[in-house]
Amino acid sequence: MSKSLFQKPIEIKISTVVAVSAILSTADRLALDAALAEMTGGTTDFFEDDLTVIDVAALPAGSEIDWAGIIALLKKYRLNPVAVRNAPPAMAAEIAAHGLSVETATKPREEQEPAPAPAKAAPAAAPAPATPAAAEAPSGKAGVMIIDTPVRAGQRIYARGCDLIITAVVNNGAEIIADGSIHVYATLNGRALAGASGNAEARIFAMNMSPELVSIAGVYRTFEDGFPAEYARSPTQIRLVGDRIDILSVNSANRA
Known about the structure:
single chain; 12% helix; 5-stranded mixed beta sheet; alpha/beta; 6-stranded mixed beta sheet; globular; 256 residues
């Protein structure tokens, strides 16, 4: 009997999708165009059709947004807008009309109203097994994802809510992402993005550095002319200082 008879027409499974945030502090398309041109340095593949969430929280109150123009501008730089974050309810219909979804911010835990206490305490139940802090950390301890195999070109790894440790080479064309810090105990090529959820204290460490791009908390630095030679063959760390990406030897106070 044909194998196709046993295949379902469609299956829906949980998948990790990584999106970048485009945080707008102005709705002026000329200013945004100039900023993106400077950021990418004219590199046509700086972004690779990355799914993008437009964050409007930093826009001045009452800003008029040309959604069609903003979407076209982001696509010009190979950013693929799919949603809008922190938009006031009055914008929801217009956003939806342009094919974008609206992300609803959840109140911080301390701002949420506490649930009313039960009138009578129930008998204590046996404690449930602890849930790992990082559901996507398949090996190692909770709070860290460990990868023991080379990361190939075109492969993307995302350590959600934890640090990422890689004990093999990260090849050119690969992309590694972590909400925490990244540690590569081999050569780091490709793209490395630490603090992806906004953690400015995250860092990137590698035994040998030769990345195409690094990012911490959304601040990028590219190396079109190659990684600084004085750091490329020694253990090196990358950190964020203010709005500047710093390169620092693990063994000394030298920096670039």
